[in-house]
């Protein structure tokens, strides 16, 4: 069974808790990331209407916390997500939950 990470950007608040939890869990130094939060915007959509998007993106270092998952725990980014915008589980099940263009399913590459 192949597991992945489903992120719904509609609910990401930009709190950076996924980034920080990942850095602490893996001991990453300044400038190193397992998951990186990017801010898109502000973009002027129409007069007096601005759009901000916060986009958590796993980097090449992300292994979806393989050690934590082996212990029956969630990846640390999912566990600590304050916006509850991340889900971890079987890719086929997560794919069925993709109902918005602001949702992305990440699957780690196997070497």
TrEMBL record:
PROSITE patterns: 4FE4S_FER_2 (PS51379). Its main location: other. It comes from the Bacteria. Keywords: 4Fe-4S, Iron, Iron-sulfur, Metal-binding, Repeat. Residues 3-32 form the 4Fe-4S ferredoxin-type domain. InterPro entries: 4Fe4S_Fe-S-bd, FDH_Electron_Transfer_Unit. It is found in: Cell envelope. PANTHER family: FORMATE DEHYDROGENASE, NITRATE-INDUCIBLE, IRON-SULFUR SUBUNIT, IRON-SULFUR PROTEIN. This is Oxidoreductase. It comes from Raoultibacter timonensis. The lineage of its organism: Bacteria, Bacillati, Actinomycetota, Coriobacteriia, Eggerthellales.
